[in-house]
């Protein structure tokens, strides 16, 4: 014998029915804190140091990154 039961409810209703804690306020608080920390870090960094953080292996900083991109873009065209 096979029995199938379909329950139509929202995630909030399922959480309450199963007795799970409501973590939405905690999640919102943590996201707000993470956003504030990221904004603070972004404003404290100049673009050059930000690029060095993201791409530490690129020599020459932002100018080196531009040169690397340019070399990649022009390598398939046969132009120097």
Report a brief summary of the structure.
With 80 residues, the chain is mainly alpha-helical. It contains four helices and no strands.
Overview of the structural elements:
The chain has a domain at 22-75. The chain is mainly alpha-helical and 80 residues long. It is built from four helices and no strands. The model has no long low-confidence stretch (mean pLDDT 83). The protein has helices at residues 11-18, 24-44, 47-54, 61-75. The relative contact order is 0.06.
Summary keywords:
mainly alpha, elongated, 80 residues, 65% helix
Number of discrete helical segments: 4
Order of helices and strands: HHHH
- The coarse overall form would be elongated
Report the C-alpha radius of gyration, rounded. Answer: 25 Å
Main pleated-sheet profile: none
Low-confidence stretches: none
Number of strands: 0
Tell me the helix content: 55-70%
Proportion in β-strands: under 5%
**What do the pLDDT scores average to?**
83
